[in-house]
Design brief:
The protein is of the alpha/beta class. Helix content is 19%, strand content 28%. The chain has 6 helices and 17 strands. The strands form 3 sheets. It has a 9-stranded mixed beta sheet. Strands 5-6-7-10-9-8 form a 6-stranded antiparallel barrel. Strand 5 and strand 6 form a beta hairpin. Helix 5 crosses helix 6. The longest helix has 14 residues. The radius of gyration is 20 Å and the shape is globular.
């Protein structure tokens, strides 16, 4: 299957540069995955598509201020680091700039509080950095780091919390699970009042979000592993949802990938708690084991995320919906509008 099948032209002006003043004021495109029918709404209309007995699954990961700017100790040249994955003992997998000049043994200084030594190269062009500091790493990072906004966002983000979901809790992501940015606490209360259960998973978004596909054939792409957690409480809720005939609604591709990772492990048996690393790559031909409905934003052309939603709704339905969203001037990507595939 050729990657170009998932290409489309997106006018640059449709890439949302800043979040809306009100989180839930976004637009919502609904796509019926059976017949391909499309309707246009405001985001709060999602309540009309949720039924008592459904379970809404949210990714409670929290973005860390993972972008650091420093200088090389020996030359004073500027250096940039994007933290991706905590690999233990003050070591992190990271992307670095300029990559060609930051070799093993190079030392990067970030102010007076933090220093990193490049110890090794990792897969896909990354580096393993060993940090040295006094105090608490997360507190230092909070002072020195910047939010790792995707490269297509050029505007400065005034309020860091607008790149966090209102329910974010578990620190560790290099990017936000953006489908959840539309929810307010008030709207989640309305969801619960409808008799819809709310469950949480954790998936720390890593390199896969920033890495474009570099192959021609979809099947040749390899996903980068990301850490996930599905708790006993969530496993119980999912089993109860199945038993009563309710739908599992994944908020975002990260929730969907976590749920499907666990579904593959459990097969036809009950869902059990699980944690670990997942590199699951979902594209058309995949048979979903847990996810019935998905809420998602509009994604980049030729991205693994467009392929994932195409696996749920069919490529033709997704391409038709995307072209209509472009015609209707929907806002795209992280701070953009939403799509519900049901």
């Amino acid at each position: 299957m050729n990657v170009d099948l998932y290409d489309f032209h997106l006018p640059e002006e449709l890439i949302a540069q800043t979040p809306l003043v009100e989180r839930s004021a976004s637009r919502l495109l609904t796509l019926n995955k059976e017949d391909g029918s499309i309707k246009h709404h405001v985001f709060t209309d999602i309540l009309d598509y949720l039924c008592p007995g459904d379970t809404l699954v949210l990714n409670d990961t929290r973005v860390i201020p993972a972008r650091l700017f420093g200088i090389k100790e020996d030359t004073g040249a500027k250096a940039e680091v994007l933290l991706l994955k905590d690999v233990g003992n003050d070591r992190w997998e990271a992307l670095v700039k300029p990559g060609k000049k930051l070799k093993n043994g190079a030392v990067i200084i970030f102010g007076d509080e933090l220093k990193a030594t490049i110890e090794a190269e990792s897969d896909m062009g990354g580096r393993i950095l060993k940090f040295s500091y006094e105090g608490i790493f997360n507190e230092i990072l909070d002072r020195l780091g910047q939010m790792p906004l995707p490269p297509y966002i050029k505007e400065k983000l005034d309020d860091r919390e607008r790149y966090q979901t209102v329910y974010s809790k578990v620190e560790g992501s290099a990017a936000a699970p953006t489908a959840g940015l539309h929810f307010t606490e008030e709207l989640l209360s309305q969801v619960a009042a409808k008799g819809v259960d709310i469950a949480f998973v954790t998936l720390h978004v890593g390199l896969g979000t920033f890495r474009p596909m570099s192959v021609d054939r979809v099947e040749d792409h390899v996903m980068h592993d990301e850490y996930y957690i599905l708790s006993q409480e969530t496993a119980d809720k999912l089993n109860e949802t199945r038993a009563r005939g309710g739908r599992v609604i994944a908020v975002g591709t990260t929730s969907a990938r976590t749920l499907e990772t666990v579904a593959q492990q459990c097969g036809t048996g009950p869902i059990v708690p699980s944690s670990g690393w997942t590199g699951i790559f979902i594209y058309p031909g995949y048979s979903f084991g847990l996810v019935n409905v998905m809420l998602t934003n509009f994604h980049l052309p030729k991205s693994t995320l467009v392929m994932l939603v195409s696996a749920l709704a069919g490529r033709e339905h997704i391409m038709k919906a995307y072209h209509e969203a472009i015609e209707q001037q929907y806002r795209f990507f992280s701070f953009g509008d939403a799509m519900l595939i049901y």
